């Protein structure tokens, strides 16, 4: 037979008494940090060495970009244009046919470039000779009444002079007879250009012919 506990644990409506010496609360967990870290001001501040904003930003959208207010200045010394450009002359084939017909005349056929005149033609080149031909014809043949007309062109001393006699462009009488250009008036620009073309073509053929 089981013997009962002489001091049974009380139960029911009377709980165990509270601890008369409870542990103090942890004040360090609840209190804030007395020395908090200062906020990072460098992250929010702008870069002191960054490029300044463009005071004149380029517009976008339906408005086109304005033109440069300071364009590059124009060349103060541009190459001047030729004040007397020569009009397009007859083709070389047409000139050759005219020169061949004139060369059948015995007096014209005896003229050829030789000696110093030939050397001058080879050294000066076509561009320079064309300029000389234009200048000589404009002064000696182009006027309405050239000085000493009929005798104004020497027979030698310049390739252009030789070419003028060989091509019958040496005086106004020869121009009328062989080229149909009337006397008594100044040569037109087209006529002057034609005469220069005839002279230069003859010189070109002489130099190329050896």
Characterize the structure shown.
The protein has 210 residues and is mainly α. The chain contains eight helices and no strands. Helix 3 crosses helix 8, helix 5 packs antiparallel against helix 8 and helix 6 packs across helix 8. The N and C termini lie far apart (161 Å).
What is this structure's SSE topology?
Layout: H1 27-30, H2 41-44, H3 92-103, H4 106-109, H5 115-140, H6 159-167, H7 172-179, H8 189-209
- Element-by-element helix/strand order: HHHHHHHH
- Strand coverage percent: under 5%
Structural class of the helices, strands and pairings? mainly alpha
How confident overall, as mean pLDDT?
A: 78
As a whole number of angstroms, the C-alpha radius of gyration is: 55 Å
Low-pLDDT segments, ≥5 res: 42-46, 82-87
- What is the oligomer described by this structure? single chain
- First-to-last CA distance: 161 Å
**Largest pleated sheet:** none
Q: Total number of β-strand segments? A: 0
- Give the CA-based shape: elongated
Q: What are the salient characteristics of this protein?
A:
8 helices; 210 residues; elongated
């Amino acid at each position: 037979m089981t013997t009962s506990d002489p001091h049974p644990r009380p139960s029911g409506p009377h709980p165990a008494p509270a601890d008369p010496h409870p542990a103090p609360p942890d004040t360090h967990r609840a209190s804030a940090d007395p020395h908090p870290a200062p906020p990072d001001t460098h992250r929010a501040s702008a870069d002191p060495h960054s490029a300044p904003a463009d005071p004149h930003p380029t517009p976008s959208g339906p408005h086109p970009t304005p033109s440069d207010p300071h364009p590059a200045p124009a060349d103060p010394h541009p190459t001047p244009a030729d004040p007397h450009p020569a009009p397009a002359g007859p083709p070389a084939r047409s000139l050759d046919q005219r020169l061949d017909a004139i060369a059948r005349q015995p007096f014209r056929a005896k003229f050829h470039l030789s000696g110093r005149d030939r050397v001058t033609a080879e050294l000066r080149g076509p561009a320079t000779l064309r300029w000389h031909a234009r200048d000589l014809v404009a002064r000696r043949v182009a006027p309405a009444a050239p000085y000493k007309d009929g005798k104004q062109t020497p027979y030698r001393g310049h390739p252009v002079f030789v070419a003028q006699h060989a091509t019958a462009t040496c005086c106004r009488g020869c121009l009328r007879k062989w080229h149909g250009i009337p006397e008594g008036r100044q040569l037109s620009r087209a006529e002057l250009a034609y005469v220069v073309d005839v002279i230069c073509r003859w010189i070109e053929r002489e130099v190329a012919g050896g």
